[in-house]
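SEQUENCE-TO-STRUCTURE ENTRY
===========================
What this section holds: a protein sequence and its matching fold, both as plain text.
Question of interest: how does this chain fold, as expressed in backbone structure tokens?
***
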Amino acid sequence: MKSQYSNVNPGLLRYQKYAMTLHQAKLKMIQDRQTIGFSNTPTPSYHHSRKYIDEEKKQEISKENKILFKKLLSIADQTSGIPTPKPIEKKPKHLRSSSEITRKYKERKIAFENEQLAKKLIDIKPFIMKKTLDLKFLEYKKLRKMLSKINVAGSKKCSELPRLSFQQNLNVE
């Protein structure tokens, strides 16, 4: 016949036996003290213990309230998504002199007029197109090169030739 302890760890059984002997020794010490009439813990009166319990409950409740309040504040900050603004210190209004007011007004007026002029200048098409100017210059170079190849005795130099139409408008030599 197998015993009921055959599947139990032997180390566990030793520990349980040791714990049981300690427990019995403590119980014996308590019984000895009661027989002698000596007790380490004073027995408080009913009123003192009641006050102590009430104060302890109040402290626990206030501690829990503080924790809940902090949690509520953190939740409120998270749900809004916007951090709470700090109070802004209002500075007293700066009294401005009339000259300062007129100067600021003139500055704003000049800035507005400058913007208007810039818009008009952007919208205006240029009088001289770069493409046409480049084409005429290439034509001028070709003509000059052709004339330099023709070296006829008694002919005029290139600088003495009459100016082309676009050279007269630009005053280019």
Remarks:
- The CA atoms of residues 94 and 171 lie 59 Å apart.
- The longest helix spans residues 46-80.
- The chain has a mean pLDDT of 76.
